């Protein structure tokens, strides 16, 4: 289903205030709007503290705005009840984080399968889907390895397999190459680009890395809680 504007994910006039104390309010978002086009790879850049993670969390249904709307695939999602919101998040959205966020005592397969189970798959189905996702990403020979037995690039590939295991409409990455060296970053970004081309899955990547932004179709900038289209974004 479409919202008529070709947007797969849309944020409209988002406001978010964090209350650190009675007289200490942080306006993290001040009316941020952003449309992610269907099938695109979009980079979000901008200085530290400009609201990038906050908007990603809200667009990814991990948090709610104080004001404004979020639309996913033509459906409004910010006002859903918790159960429905969790369902949308686990089925339709994939997440990739800077620190990989893998469970250290779980194997690669178990880490990926868990995301399948959260989305409602039976254990056996989730395991089969995890093995396929890991093979697709070139980790078929590392299925039973724990995170500590994998390189940083391999751990991030497990995280990508986990993000993709439920066939999401969109993948959101917050500094997905932040903990990787230059060569490994390049490998991971090329892999995401390939997945985008092969499957049409949209990607939104928050990044400080200009190479990642250059590999994307489009770039926006965040500044003081607003999304802007500045060319130079530091
Ligand atoms: N849970 C929180 N409680 C209070 N303030 C917060 C919280 N999360 C974020 N903030 C504040 O909101 C503003 C935006 O933070 P956000 O994490 O979105 O920035 P960012 O652009 O992702 O920065 P970075 O590039 O450093 O990751 C910052 O001023 C930050 O200190
Ligand atoms: Mg951040």
Describe this structure in words.
This protein is an alpha/beta fold. It has one domain (38-68, 79-228): P-loop containing nucleotide triphosphate hydrolases (Rossmann fold), CATH 3.40.50.300. 35% of the residues lie in helices and 28% in strands. The protein contains seven helices and ten strands. The strands form two sheets. A six-stranded mixed β-sheet has the order 6-7-8-3-9-10, sandwiched between helices. The protein has a four-stranded antiparallel β-sheet with strand order 2-1-4-5, covered by helices on one side. Helix 4 (123-136) crosses helix 5 (152-164). It starts with 6 loop residues before the first strand and ends in a 6-residue tail after the last strand. The model has no long low-confidence stretch (mean pLDDT 93). Magnesium ion binds at residues 52-53, 174. Residues 18, 20, 26, 28, 46, 48-54 line the site of adenosine-5'-triphosphate.
């Amino acid at each position: 289903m479409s919202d008529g504007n070709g947007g797969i994910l849309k944020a409209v006039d988002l406001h978010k205030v964090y209350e650190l104390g009675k007289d200490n309010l942080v306006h993290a978002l001040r009316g941020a709007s952003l449309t992610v086009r269907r099938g695109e790879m979009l980079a979000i850049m901008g200085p530290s503290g400009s609201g990038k993670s906050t908007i990603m969390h809200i667009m990814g249904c991990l948090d709610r705005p104080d004001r404004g709307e979020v639309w996913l695939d033509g459906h409004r999602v910010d006002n859903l009840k918790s159960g429905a919101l969790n369902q949308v998040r686990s089925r339709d959205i994939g997440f990739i984080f800077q620190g990989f966020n893998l469970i250290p005592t779980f194997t690669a397969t178990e880490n990926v399968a868990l995301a399948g189970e959260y989305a409602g798959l039976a254990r056996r189905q989730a395991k089969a889907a995890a093995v396929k996702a890991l093979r697709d990403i070139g980790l078929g020979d590392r299925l039973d390895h724990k995170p500590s037995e994998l390189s940083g690039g391999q751990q991030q590939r497990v995280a990508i397999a986990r993000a993709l295991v439920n066939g999401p409409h969109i993948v959101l990455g917050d500094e997905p190459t932040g903990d990787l060296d230059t060569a490994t970053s390049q490998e991971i970004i090329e892999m995401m680009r390939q997945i985008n081309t092969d499957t049409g899955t949209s990607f939104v990547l928050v990044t400080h890395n200009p190479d990642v932004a250059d590999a994307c179709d489009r770039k926006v900038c965040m500044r003081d809680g607003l999304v802007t289209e500045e060319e130079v974004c530091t």
